[in-house]
Amino acid sequence: MRPFTESRDARKRMLIEYQQQTGTAPATFVQRTMTGYDRYWEAEQILRVLEERKIDWAKTCVVDFGSGVGDYGYAMGRQGTELVTFIDKSLEMIDFCQYRMEYEDPKFPAQFFHTSMPWRDHLGAIDVAIFGEVLEHTEDPLGLLQEFEARGAGYIFTSSYPYRRDEATDDYWKKHGHADDARLAQPACRELLETKYKKIANFGGQMNLWKHRV
Question: Is 201 contained in some domain?
Fold first, then answer.
């Protein structure tokens, strides 16, 4: 496994250099994500399972949906993937994500899309799809999962949704950004994943890696 982590100080320096180069301070939630937490532990668990299964990174296309600052996709891309597609509904997040990948490696194999853009027109094969704490923020999570399954997504990582504990849902769904439609779609999303995919790893809590049954 090729290294992909940075120190917290390195992440802070990147924010400073972004502001120096663009003349604009990163959005508050970008700063909070970069300095407050990262997704490297989860990414490492996914990588270990995929490498145990002898995945050929050079022929692997990854979609990091709801990418945020891009920790998952960056970790995958560092393994030598064919392409990583970053998609996010926040313009500030996707702009910083693009800056970050170019900052880390000008040859990083990536494309970047805001959800308002025609990202579907630019997706080819999907070998690995990452949904890291994002499906609960979408209006149609079932439609997204159906679409990615129909496009042949071989592996899907889901974090949190759709396996929130039922007794925690009332407080959870009141949080900013969580969609009522997503709450209602949880049972159907679970059925799709459990029917079309096999759970091959659980990383604690509701973090699961799925492999297509076909």
Answer: yes
pTM of the model: 0.94
Residues 155/213, Cβ–Cβ less than 8 Å: no
Does residue 62 contact residue 90 with C-beta atoms inside 8 Å? Answer: no
Total domains, the chain: 1
Alpha carbons 28 and 184: distance in angstroms, whole number: 31
* Mean model confidence pLDDT for the chain: 92
Q: How many helices (H) and strands (E) are present in the chain, helices listed first?
A: 8, 7
Tell me the residue range of the domain where 59 lies: 38-212
Kindly state the average pLDDT of the residues 145-171: 85
pLDDT band of 176, cuts 50, 70, 90: low
Residue 19 inside a domain? The answer is no
Question: Which phi-psi region, left, alpha or beta, contains residue 11 (left: φ > 0; alpha: ψ -120 to 50)?
Answer: alpha
Q: By three-state DSSP, how is residue 101 classified?
A: helix
CB atoms under 10 Å from CB of 41, counted, come to 13
Q: Does residue 57 sit within a domain?
A: yes
Domain-embedded: residue 161: yes
Cα–Cα distance, 14 to 110 (Å, whole number): 19
Compute the distance between CA of residue 189 and CA of residue 135 in angstroms, rounded to an integer: 10
The two tokens of residue 69 are 């600052």
Name every residue whose Cβ is closer than 8 Å to that of residue 117 and which is 6 or more positions away in sequence. none
Q: What does the alpha-carbon distance between residue 145 and residue 141 come to, in Å, rounded to a whole number?
A: 6
Q: Give the pLDDT of residue 166.
A: 54
pLDDT digits (tens, 9 = 90+) for 51-85: 999 999 999 999 999 999 999 999 999 999 999 99
